[in-house]
Amino acid sequence: MVLSCSKNCIDYNINVDNQKISLKYNHLEKELFSAEIDNEAKHNYLIHKYDRLYSLFYSQMLNEGNPFSENAPIRLKTFIEHPSTSEISSTILTYFSDFSTYEKEINSAFKHFNYYFPDSTLPSITTLYSNFNANTIEVDKTIAIGLEMYLGENNKIVKSLPSDYFPEFIKQKMNAQYLVSDVMHCLLHNRFYTSLGDDFLSEIVSLGKISYLIEVMTPNEDENLKFRYSKDELIWCQENERNIWETVVNENLLYSKDKKLLNHFISLAPYTKGLPKESPSRVGVWLGYKIVKDYVESNCIDIQSLVNEKNAKKILKSYHPNE
Questions:
Q1: What is the 3-state secondary structure (H, E, C) of 252-310?
Q2: Do 176 and 286 fall into the same domain?
Q3: Are 222 and 302 in the same domain?
Q4: Which of 9, 115, 123, 148 is most solvent-facing, going by the fewest CB within 10 Å?
């Protein structure tokens, strides 16, 4: 008898049109820079509306101190009216004057999330100016998106950012094509990331799970985006998969607990240290994704089982690096 496991396999082509969700979108940057609200009155208005998110924005992103201090409204007014703020605000409001395309893509991704996790509560979405501090961050029940982080590597303001804090390999990734995947990474990482252990394999598989979940939630997105890769960077990984794997094995990295070596493979950098300089950074995350993907597709694992599986060695057993 041949037993079919197809009912448990992940269908990348599911129709989510019937998934009913109600996502609320707020645009803090528009209210912050709006001429319709008096600058001194804005502070109290924004802290009342956005609560802890605005407190974090004011105290940590703008670095203006205690948002409940007596002079907080004046400090915000001074910030808004500063000449450098005027240029940035104008650029953001122009570049993201129409957010509807991103809303459509985020809605689709959240519908997929709702399909697989119907009992989960969906956060709202708030766009803002993070003062170049955050791509995405979840605070309470909202995911905040720092729009200035997606203005594009060729934008004048982005190009002028100090290279000590924003080296070229960071600026090259400040593009709007990564926005939706970043939102889903924030959502999924905060809900499902669990370190499976303290060795190299456990960590890359833990991160690979999140990348795989992003793929499932955004089936129409280009594959490279979930890794914040260019298409050429993804191709490099695919064409060098065997060499990557042999390096990990031959250098005894797989069960290593050396955090410094692990960070070489999962941290943002010009390239992945230990691999050729032509490699992109964070190749360990991509490798973890491939290990997870092979496990799911070889064993017809459903999403819930994948999320619940805590044995990295079991997941590894199905991995077969490309020749």
A1: CCCCCCCHHHHHHHHCCCCCCECECCCCCCCHHHHHHHHHHHHHHHHHCCCHHHHHHCC
A2: no
A3: yes
A4: 9
| Residues 6 or more apart whose Cβ sits within 8 Å of residue 289 | 207, 208, 211, 212, 215, 226, 227
What is the percent of the chain with per-residue pLDDT over 90, rounded to a whole number? Answer: 90
**For the chain, which ranges sit under pLDDT 70?**
1-9, 323
Domain co-membership, 128 together with 273:
no
Q: Which of 148, 167, 188 is the last residue of a domain?
A: 188
Report angle CA 120, 124, 127 to the nearest 5 degrees.
145
Residue 35's pLDDT is: 78
b/e per residue 237-260 (b: at least 16 CB within 10 A): beebbeebbebbeeeebbeeeeee
Residue 290's domain comprises 193-316
pLDDT for residue 12: 75
| Single pTM value for the model | 0.94
3-state SS, residue 223 = helix
Structural domain count of the chain: 2
Say yes or no: 161 and 77 in one domain: yes
Instruction: Please check whether residues 52 and 165 belong to one and the same domain.
Output: yes
CA 311 to chain centre: 25
